[in-house]
């Protein structure tokens, strides 16, 4: 996984597919993923959780979604969402099946860290062999709310545990030590951080929010750790189907993906789609846009002024 000769690396974020089992909505979801991968030809596809929902065979459903990237000849990574392992399959089982596939870059991650699928992926320089030029961090936000946080939470009770924050700090420090300073980095999560709510209220944002953010009530300090380490330029979340905005806080762009699946709920006039992210070798920052189900591309989303 490396930058192209022209110095770009493009990622397609596909989120909340909610594939069930060949319903008409499922066929629309699969067709949308195929279209995005065909038209954009990204270097990597990242599924940011909730790939599946209720259906007869969770293993087959999960495999059907990820197979679209492999069939297109595109490497893929994923993180789990709150719907992926609530039925007759565990995260461990799904990860073991996927890790054996040739186009899969997802990893179970360290056993001593809570959850399954906490890992980093270096993006190597276009020239220079095994020299990393950027890094991607992927986190499992789990289904870990204690009883006092579950009632009526709508997903607000899920969070990144403290041990994952400490793991990220170690990973970031190791990359910085190996390369003489922080590498440009992106982070992918399913459940948005509490700062997503803060940036909508206090900063200038770009995009839409048709429903309240379902961020966790408990803040364990992942965002603070990212600002301290100085490598993460942007975070990319799913979970909130009716939001696709991004805003900058503390030098980090907090971005939602565009909901991809037709099975999930969606408020407002938003289309299903996918967020694209383009890194540029040797530079901090990234470009991002949304490709919609009708084939149109959104490069200039509406601006939202701070509420406070």
Automatic annotation (TrEMBL):
Q: Which GO terms describe its cellular component?
A: cytoplasm
Lineage top rank: taxon: Bacteria
Q: Which Pfam families match?
A: Metallophos (PF00149)
User: Which Gene Ontology molecular function entries are recorded, alphabetically?
Assistant: hydrolase activity, acting on ester bonds
Q: Which residues form the Calcineurin-like phosphoesterase domain?
A: 10-94
Q: SUPFAM superfamilies from the entry?
A: Metallo-dependent phosphatases
Q: Which InterPro entries match?
A: Calcineurin-like_PHP (IPR004843), Metallo-depent_PP-like (IPR029052)
PANTHER family assigned to the protein according to its UniProt record, in alphabetical order: METALLOPHOSPHOESTERASE DOMAIN-CONTAINING PROTEIN (PTHR32440:SF11), PHOSPHATASE DCR2-RELATED-RELATED (PTHR32440)
Q: What is this protein called?
A: Metallophosphoesterase
Native organism is: Paenibacillus ginsengarvi
């Amino acid at each position: 996984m490396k930058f192209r000769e022209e110095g770009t690396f493009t990622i397609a974020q596909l989120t909340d597919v909610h594939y069930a089992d060949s319903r008409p909505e499922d066929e629309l979801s699969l067709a949308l993923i195929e279209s995005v991968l065909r038209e954009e030809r990204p270097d990597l596809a990242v599924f940011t959780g909730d790939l599946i929902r209720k259906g007869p065979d969770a293993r087959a459903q999960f495999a059907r979604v990820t197979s679209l990237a492999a069939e297109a000849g595109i490497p893929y990574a994923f993180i789990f969402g709150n719907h992926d392992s609530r039925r007759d399959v565990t995260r461990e089982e799904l990860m073991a099946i996927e890790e054996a596939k040739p186009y899969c870059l997802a990893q179970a991650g360290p056993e001593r860290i809570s959850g399954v699928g906490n890992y980093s992926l270096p993006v190597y320089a276009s020239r220079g062999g095994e020299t990393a030029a950027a890094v991607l961090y992927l986190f499992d936000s789990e289904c870990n709310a204690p009883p006092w946080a579950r009632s009526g939470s709508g997903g607000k009770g899920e969070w990144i545990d403290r041990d994952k924050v400490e793991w990220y700090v170690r990973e970031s420090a190791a990359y910085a030590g190996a390369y003489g300073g922080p590498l440009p980095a992106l982070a992918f999560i399913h459940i948005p951080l509490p700062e997503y709510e803060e940036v909508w209220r206090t900063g200038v944002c770009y995009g839409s929010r048709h429903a309240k953010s379902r961020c966790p009530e408990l803040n364990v300090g992942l965002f603070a750790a990212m600002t301290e380490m100085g490598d993460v330029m942007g975070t990319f979340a799913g979970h909130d189907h009716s939001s696709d905005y991004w805003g900058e806080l503390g030098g980090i762009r907090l971005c939602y993906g565009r909901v991809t699946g037709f099975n999930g709920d969606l408020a407002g006039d938003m289309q299903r789609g996918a967020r694209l992210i383009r890194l540029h070798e040797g530079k901090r920052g990234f470009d991002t846009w949304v490709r919609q189900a009708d084939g149109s591309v959104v490069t200039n989303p509406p601006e939202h002024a701070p509420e406070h």
